[in-house]
Amino acid sequence: MSRTQSTILWIYAVVIAIWPIRYVVLKYIFSRLQFLTPDSPTLDPADPPLVSAIIPAKDEEASLADCLASVSAQKYPRMEILVVDDRSTDRTLEIAQSFAARDPRIQVVHNDHLEPGWTGKTYVLQKLADQARGDWLWFLDADTDHRPEFLGVMMEYARSNKAEMASLLPELRCETFWEQVIQPLGGIVLMQSFPVQRVNDDRSKLAFANGQSILISRRAYDAAGGHAAVRDRFVEDIGMAYKVKNLGMPIRVAMTKGLVSCRMYATLGQLVRGWSRILYDAHDRKTWRLVVKLLDPIIFCQSGHVVLLIALVLLATGSPGPFPAWLLGLSLVHHALMYAVFRVIYNASVPRSRYTHWFPVGNIVSDLILVRAIQMCLTGRVTWRGTSYGPIAAPAADASGSPAQG
């Protein structure tokens, strides 16, 4: 074996060595995470504060009925429900009004325009927050489905942690092949940048919230400037979390099991568009941060697929010496270690996932998502839910809130 071949093997072995470390770190992290379930403590209902559930809905006829049914069925005793139909072209408004006719707690607002300088979601959330009467605001997405215990558990989680803002990471409902393969990888790319333990550490400046379900006190919301303070953000949840935490108010994030689920995107196109938008804005629209995210899978994942292919070609063509056999052996070890890590990742997002072995395909699509997010950074243009935005500058740090999230 030549010196060059030996050097290649040693470099590749170093790349492989990262995977057992990642496995141990992931297992340790997940062992320390707090999971909320339907059996978790709920807020004592003796004198509960009024909670305003706020649901933005744009073309959500496929999911809104299930969402409203689950929100209406909450055991929490004091709640109002505000739904905004935001320029929908389907039956969203009709569905919302049908629920309002049966439940006096539900108010429906129709929005037919978007103010300049705002993203669609931030504009309608601020509009409803201005009308809400609650001491606490519960912002949730129309594609979420909640157990009846959900709001009581969430309120108690905030109370027991003295949190002014709390959000949860729901289980993902993945019904198609592409959802099963891509969703867990999109989630792990995001959570690598926002580890829950650091977010929940009051000494850390890192902040994160998940807009699928956010509970925030009215005083924290107003002090942070409401959604007007993050009006141009596509991940307004993270922007708001920074605003609140930088005021010295505690924020908390928890995982869930059997308490709430969400179906984010149904098709491959929606997955690519949705996750590229999220990663673009979550990383402050900074090209270099997304390039770093892209290099990680290329170096530590795709290298294994390339090496496996090269080893098989060398063996098939009768290349002399032990180098092809060593290359093949290392690549098989590489894939086995990657599988072990991705099994942990997939099961965390989609319990009992049967699609872990498709992670190489998921890696390639994740690369395309990151490339698309980088393109957004370079052009400043984003199209989402039928509205085109841009070019938009990167969020800047200010005295009260949203910093560069590094």
Summarize model confidence as the mean pLDDT: 90
Distance separating the two termini: 44 Å
Number of DSSP E strands = 13
H-E string: HEEHEHEHEEHEEHHEHHEEHHHHEE
Structural class: alpha/beta
Question: Helix fraction?
Answer: 40-55%
Major sheet size, sense and barrel closure? 8 strands, mixed
Low-pLDDT segments, ≥5 res: 396-406
User: How large is the count of helical segments?
Assistant: 13
Description:
With 406 residues, the protein is of the alpha/beta class. Residues 396-406 have low confidence and may be disordered. Helix 3 links the parallel strand 3 and strand 4. It is built from 13 helices and 13 strands. The relative contact order is 0.15. Helix 2 packs parallel to helix 3 (92-102), helix 6 runs parallel beside helix 10 and helix 6 (177-193) packs across helix 13. It is 50% helix and 14% strand. An eight-stranded mixed β-sheet has the order 1-10-7-9-5-2-3-4, with helices on both faces. It has a three-stranded mixed β-sheet with strand order 6-11-8. Strands 12-13 form a two-stranded antiparallel ribbon.
